[in-house]
Amino acid sequence: MGTTGATGSAGGEDGGYDYDLVVIGGGPTGENLADRAHAGGLSVALVEAELVGGECSYWACMPSKALLRPGAALTGARRVAGSREAVTGALDAAAVLARRDAFASHWHDDGQVRWLASAGIDLVRGHGRLDGERRVTVDTPGGGRRTLTARHAVAVCTGTRAALPDLPGLAGARVWTSREATSAKSVPRRLAVVGGGVVAVETATAWRALGSEVTLLVRGGRLLERTEEFAGQLVSDGLRAAGVDVRLGASVTAVRREPDGTVLLDLADGTRLPADEALFATGRRPATADLGLESVGLEPGSWIDTDDTGRATAVPGGWLYAAGDVNHRALLTHQGKYQGRVFGAAIADRAAGRPLDLAPWGRSVATADHAAVPQVVFADPEVAAVGRTLREAEDAGLRVRAVDYELGDVSGAALHADDYRGRARAVVDLDREVLVGVTFVGPDVAELLHSATVAVVGEVPLDRLWHAVPAYPTVSEVWLRLLETYRG
Ligand SMILES: Cc1cc2nc3c(=O)[nH]c(=O)nc-3n(C[C@H](O)[C@H](O)[C@H](O)COP(=O)(O)OP(=O)(O)OC[C@H]3O[C@@H](n4cnc5c(N)ncnc54)[C@H](O)[C@@H]3O)c2cc1C
Ligand SMILES: NC(=O)c1ccc[n+]([C@@H]2O[C@H](COP(=O)([O-])OP(=O)(O)OC[C@H]3O[C@@H](n4cnc5c(N)ncnc54)[C@H](O)[C@@H]3O)[C@@H](O)[C@H]2O)c1
């Protein structure tokens, strides 16, 4: 099969369908969905308007983590007497940015295009739009237009864009979104960050480590609203200790960029904050405004709701699927890829008339989206959480108990870093005696998270977990301490 601009593998044959499946959007979700559907026997076209690999590869996960890792490595060395003395300088910003550029593949997608070809998926470059049932038109880079018809299904995997507030002056102020925050070529002296979510926190952490004077303007009363409250508090403490000016309850009322390049942010308390760049990390909106949603009875610009097999619930006929960020189930790369695997296989099974497994945790349904979504916030300290917070579990009507343990009291943590500060919480479903949520906050807790994900997804009874003995002296001994605390 071909790649760029390839014609359909089944073009004109068997009823005139071009492909069994047309996927719009070649981010991590679209790639995985296309791959699983093709592995299930379908011919697949993938339509991509920008770079194959999507936001994650070029302007989100990869470059942001590449910007964060050197600062984390340096901080890690500084936390241990003996190695602390060996750290005599600051980060080499040019080297950090160069490494970031490499992790963003220098904003070229050749590698991912080669992978698509090797996987047997046809790439059609251009902007795709739905055009009624099982039809997609593509505005191609050369100015032409192609129509693709799908025999079985169309999958929308178009992701999100940054959502900017409607503020006076914002449109002309050339503010940063997450794209500029992850691809900037130099370190701003003064950086204002608006928002208190993950993008705001990670960006503040990264650019502060690179030397920017960072002011974090948070509208609400805490950071990371969707995590346990202590996580927001410990991250806020960490940012302040690193020299970030964290301002809670700070609302921006207007923005403008002066002729000398300075950005001025007017705040609701009457003060004005000057900066060299201002990031608005104020959430995401679905990339569906120019997608032809009206041609299938959906509202342009809306999120696309789906059932657990990925079918758009408001579109009759069961031929339209939506996966990844665009369905608003969980805005994370790994959940989008998971949906891609599950939904792609379900599409192929339906097409072949094979039975689906629709029971909770069955092969054909993305059950984990509801109860077991893991996430790591790469701040200092790191926040690693899976499943429900205490509040979410209570709101869901579960009879639960939170079990907390100070991570610094674990021998492995004390060895890992001097004055280790952090906390773990397990949320226990008292009726079933299983875990429904776990949060770790502390230096280098990210790699602990999958143990918690396995326990939550596996619904491992606490009596059995008691026999999962953590190695001594590792940070993972926190598992033992949590269970001991629960048993009393
Ligand atoms: C700064 C930042 C850091 C992040 N870090 C992490 C992280 O560390 N871990 C994590 O799990 N998640 C992270 N995320 C979230 C993650 O980036 C998204 O969840 C993920 O990219 C979603 O994948 P997707 O394939 O659904 O959408 P996207 O990655 O957005 O891909 C969608 C693709 O569709 C294409 N497209 C859109 N419309 C059309 C159209 N009409 N026609 C053709 N093509 C179209 C786009 O060009 C794009 O390539 C981060 C997000 C941000 C903003
Ligand atoms: N490490 C990771 O896993 C990672 C990293 C980055 C992003 N992501 C994902 O990407 C998604 C987007 O992240 P995000 O941080 O952009 O969004 P978010 O929804 O997590 O946070 C948005 C923040 O902006 C604030 N806000 C919204 N409108 C505002 C306004 N008008 N004025 C001031 N503040 C306003 C909100 O109160 C919130 O604090 C999230 O779902 C996140 O999980 C994940």
UniProtKB/TrEMBL annotation:
Residues 19-336 form the FAD/NAD(P)-binding domain. Residues 373-479 form the Pyridine nucleotide-disulphide oxidoreductase dimerisation domain. Its EC number is 1.-.-.-. GO terms for molecular function: oxidoreductase activity. Its cofactor is FAD. Keywords: FAD, Flavoprotein, NAD, Oxidoreductase. Belongs to the class-I pyridine nucleotide-disulfide oxidoreductase family. This is Dihydrolipoyl dehydrogenase family protein.
